Amino acid sequence: MFIAFEGGDGAGKTTQIQLLRDRLVAAGREVVVTREPGGTALGQEIRNVLLHGDHVAPRAEALLFAADRAHHVATVVRPALERGAIVLQDRYMDSSIAYQGAGRELDPAEVKRLSLWATEDLLPDLTVLLDVTPEVGRARRGEVHDRLEREADDFHTRVREHYLALAATDPGRYLVVDAALPAEQIAALVAQEVQS
């Protein structure tokens, strides 16, 4: 099973992934926890360029995320799925569609096509969208750490709105959860969805 966790910066993805991982491991399941960008050595180099480097042109940014995704799926995600593991991933193609498509104002359909090509059409079985407002996300993040977190509120508002629009197009694949709920309550909702 392939489960992606999506949402704006400060939504609580890392916390929820850890809580679900602990639950699944306790049930005797093999779990692979990974992230994009940066789930491989190559991905870590790309992550450093994308998040901690200087300005990256929007199309180049989209291509770099897609390059990381292609390598990551080929070397980490697909092998784990093929051996029967559950993959819990912090960000996947919806992040590119929302951040580079809506946030950077590229064509979201083009960004999606690029990601589908890069992954040979691999979609998660479940995408958990932790919905957070830009204001709450900023308060949770505290100190700004990277280029994307430094973007203005209108950028983060476009990203959030596009995430919600993506979830509305395929409600069977998405679980949308209010990220303002207590972490334990969110974890229970996620676990219930995974078990169903």
From TrEMBL:
GO biological process: dTDP biosynthetic process; dTTP biosynthetic process; dUDP biosynthetic process
Highest taxon, organism lineage: Bacteria
EC id: 2.7.4.9
Binding, ATP: 7-14
Transferase listed as a keyword: yes
Catalytic activity: dTMP + ATP = dTDP + ADP
Listed PANTHER family: THYMIDYLATE KINASE (PTHR10344), UMP-CMP KINASE 2, MITOCHONDRIAL (PTHR10344:SF4)
Physiological role: Phosphorylation of dTMP to form dTDP in both de novo and salvage pathways of dTTP synthesis.
Name of the protein in its database record: Thymidylate kinase
Organism: Flexivirga aerilata
Lineage: Bacteria, Bacillati, Actinomycetota, Actinomycetes, Micrococcales
